[in-house]
């Protein structure tokens, strides 16, 4: 008789909403009954009547606890356990790592595409996610195991589907801090799950020396790919000066690297717009990317290569439309968060926004800018700020965004032509003409938005802050002139 499986035990995990409610209640008791001093874990254990080991499991969501334990925790601090405070989760055996990792990617419960199994232990153990928003400032991409990642459906599904296609190209386009790197993390994780090879090359990591010499650029590019694949580069053996750098690069990839590997490789070229600043490199490298995609229609080796091109702004280098890689493959542009997405992210931070009022107030200042929304929610949920206080301080002097804004202001002051161009954008009441190069740079920085043919500041925060800074700068210049006159 087949023995029944007993390793799966249904329990509950504390959600981010429940954690936030409990944290607030505990803090209120600490202030009232403990002179504001924090309770130790032992003191909490005595008060709640559960072991410290169980409390650790609860706080860090490392394993499930029974619902009765969670009820005791809430009751000890005058709260009633609600459905939103916990979620039902199974205890997982080690051989269930695949399902656990899949759920951490914030995908649907059932795989959209057939997934291959992953080797046990091939992924780092996931860290607790319920506490992340309460202690981690939102800087950089959203980690894979974070509950704070907001899906951009159907973008994720489209990318996952596309990179399973032979010789595919995906183009991800959006200004800075729109979530490109967070999406790339999930694309690479999905590719890894398919047992594909994965390489991410950030073009900002390429030395200026390599970008000043065409042959050096292609050799360094090929060396990086070979090294990431664990293959001895042997560049001198496979490089032929007689046929030039581009053909040597193509032959090297096709006949040496791709020929050796049996599985597809997903190559992410991140922040590739840096190459726009090096026209000689761009005009040779970009057509080569397109040629590899076209060769994949008939060559099995090139079919193993799946390209993901990530960039912040429109192409401004001169490229023949028939040689450009920026008009092939699947184009995806990341947009700002919608009202619904902002409200959902607020909910995941434990904020109880019951109408569109709060989201509308915040978005009237920063739009749906993902980075600015995340910073605001961090301060509201974790630093005890009110929305009214946040908005007033941001409008008055930059507030919580002061560092973010000052970084932009420093960059503008270091480039006077760019500063002059942005001055026109901030002060204009109608459409203006700007040099395309300046528009490209402002767009790349994420400082502008488009309203039909009109270029305008990205959000009201930028308009107000930079208008003040520019006014002060003009006042300072005027005072210096007056002082010289005397």
Q: Give the biggest sheet.
A: 5 strands, parallel
Q: In angstroms, what is the radius of gyration?
A: 27 Å
Mean pLDDT: 82
Strand order, sheet with most strands:
4-5-6-3-7
Q: Distance N terminus to C terminus?
A: 104 Å
**What gross morphology would you assign?**
flat
Q: CATH topology of the largest domain, which one?
A: Rossmann fold
Determine the fraction of residues in helical runs and give it as a percent range. 40-55%
Structure characterization notes:
- This is AAA-like domain-containing protein.
- It comes from Amazonocrinis nigriterrae CENA67.
- There is one protein chain.
- The chain has 486 residues and is of the alpha/beta class.
- The chain has three domains: 10-91, 434 Repressor (Amino-terminal Domain) (Orthogonal Bundle), CATH 1.10.260; 155-333, Rossmann fold, CATH 3.40.50; 404-485, no CATH class.
- It is built from 21 helices and nine strands.
- The chain has helices spanning 16-33, 41-48, 52-60, 67-75, 97-104, 132-135, 155-162, 180-193, 208-211, 214-229, 235-238, 245-260, 279-295, 339-348, 356-366, 370-382, 387-397, 402-413, 416-427, 436-445, 460-485, and strands spanning 10-14, 86-90, 169-173, 197-202, 265-270, 305-311, 330-333, 448-451, 454-457.
- A five-stranded parallel beta sheet has the order 4-5-6-3-7, sandwiched between helices.
- A hairpin with a 2-residue loop joins strand 8 (448-451) and strand 9 (454-457).
- The longest helix is centred in the last third of the chain and has 26 residues, at 460-485.
- Mean pLDDT is 82; it is low at 1-9 and 90-134.
